[in-house]
Amino acid sequence: MSGLPVTATAIAEAVAGGLVSARDVTWAALSRIAAGNGRVGAFTDVTADRALAQADALDAARARGEMLGPLAGVPYGVKNLFDIEGLPTRAGSKINRDRAPAARDALLIERLTEAGAILLGGLNMGEYAYDFTGENAHDGPSRNPRDLARMSGGSSGGSAAAVAAGFVPASLGSDTNGSIRVPSSLCGTFGLKPTYGRLTRSRTFPFCESLDHLGPFAANTADLALVYDALQGPAGDDPACTGRVDAVGTPGGIEGLRIAIAGGYFRQGAQADVLDAVDRAATALGVSREIEIPEAARGRAAAFLITNAESSALHLDRLRARAGDFDPDTRARFLAGALLPAAWLVQAQRFRRWYHDQVLKLFEEVDVILAPATPCPAPLLGQQTLKLGTEEVPLRPNMGLFTQPISCIGLPVAVAPLKLAGGLPIGVQIIAAPWREDLCLRVAAALEAAGIARAETGIA
Amino acid sequence: MSSFDPAKHLDAMAPALGLDIDPAWRPQVEQFLGVAARMAALLEGFPPGEELEHAAPVFRP
């Protein structure tokens, strides 16, 4: 199978042009998964029959002279909280395996199918998405392809690992507090958390409605933009989705963009080499200006409380009836969240509105803000604490230190992967004003073009 | 918020919500209640004033 195109962009061009068959591309991806997934743990379900049937249908359509879609023959996987027809939507849990098989694909899967992409299956995730590690008591962890002894990050760990392992050129995940950006950073992939309300969550299993976002992972920005464009469209039955569409196409240059580094909160609590990576990115972009995102620590606190309360209310019946079937790592947090005083939640929502208004004012002065995605590169699997400076802190809550204050108010963020001296990747968040995913992707593309950001693929 | 006692809070609230919390899980649940209390303390009284609107369940950036 050598000589087949690797990137989504190249696959789609080659399949549409008849240079390779969708079947050969699909078969090659299924073979990579069969050979490597046992070590990585990225896929929890592989839908091989469906994928090959879809590939054959695409090849037949092309043979009839039909035009193929922009993602013709591109294999991909989805976090297993997306409905996949015929499978119970497990959302990383044991309990959900008792659900009836989904009658219909999630709307975003239908959109990618329409564009010619080929679904290869469901991807591992932290239980009910309440996770930053990629570990899972029921399915085992998704492991980091850059170092299999390390965490993939969570909760969309399988989504990042599948791309980083080179199983698929793209995948879909969700991000409530950092679940696209944390695994992108740890596994060294590109990822996009769009504006809250951009991509429909129709027929996906929720975590925290007022913070849940869906988005793509890929190994380069052109592929990320290609998939993102195919995902945009009407809301379906998602009440928070606006259905707004702003196609990015090929991300343009960064001339004239006002870019700044996030100071204050975002310069504390990270390893020195992580801050150095942000500075390398800034230097490559010709940026030295620092800007302060006001009250980011409180933004994180609000996101924490809203997530804790909302998600626990969602799971209250399951906590009453089947608490023993939860992953021990999520159970205690859900139980605690179910008990929170109402005033804490109301105050968090009230702060969130104030914080939103303050942060949006920053975008009168700048277009893009750079910040670290995680305080450290991938920790070892099972690691419980994290050394930040001289302080030893609990790992799980602190992996979202820099992502939570941003998703709290729904801003779009791309993550671009840089490499640290020790060889592990680290992600830089590229943050823009609502609906300006195009700016996030333009800056990511500039870092890629400068040779600063790059996603490695394959299993180390 | 320094007077917040996770154990007492748990004892009062869990039965009210119909939650049966296994004693083996209690230390971790109390730990997370403590984390939440610290987060809530950060937000107490901030921003000041009572005239803000839009503490909205539907949130559009």
Task: Please tell me the overall pLDDT of chain A.
Answer: 97
What integer value in Å does the Rg of chain A equal? 20 Å
Please mark out the parts of chain B with pLDDT under 50 across 5 or more consecutive residues, or reply none: none
Low-confidence stretches of chain A: none
How many beta-strand segments of chain B? 0
- C-alpha Rg of chain B (nearest Å): 16 Å
CATH architecture tag of chain A: Alpha-Beta Complex
Instruction: State the share of residues found in helices of chain B, binned by percent.
Output: 40-55%
Head-to-tail CA distance between termini of chain A:
21 Å
Share in β-strands of chain B? under 5%
List the chains of the largest interface with their residue counts.
Answer: A-B, 49 and 36 residues
CATH homologous superfamily descriptor of chain A? Amidase signature (AS) domain
Content-based structural category of chain B: mainly alpha
CATH class of chain A: Alpha Beta
Major beta sheet, strand line-up of chain A = 1-3-2-6-8-7-14-15-11-9-10
What would you call the shape of chain B? elongated
Q: What characteristic shape of chain A results from the CA principal axes?
A: globular
Question: What is the number of helices of chain B?
Answer: 2
Distinct helical segment count of chain A: 15
Name the quaternary structure: heterodimer
Secondary-structure map:
The complex is a heterodimer of chains A (460) and B (61).
Chain A: H1 8-16, H2 22-40, E1 43-46, H3 48-63, E2 75-79, H4 107-114, E3 118-123, E4 143-144, E5 147-151, H5 157-164, E6 170-175, H6 181-187, E7 190-193, E8 213-218, H7 221-231, E9 259-262, H8 272-284, E10 290-291, H9 296-314, H10 316-322, H11 328-338, H12 342-362, E11 368-372, E12 385-388, E13 391-394, H13 395-398, H14 404-407, E14 413-419, E15 425-432, H15 437-449
Parallel strand pairs in A: 2-3, 2-6, 9-10, 9-11
Antiparallel strand pairs in A: 1-3, 4-5, 6-8, 7-8, 7-14, 11-15, 12-13, 14-15
Helix pairs in contact in A: 2-3, 7-15, 9-11, 9-12
Chain B: H1 6-16, H2 26-43
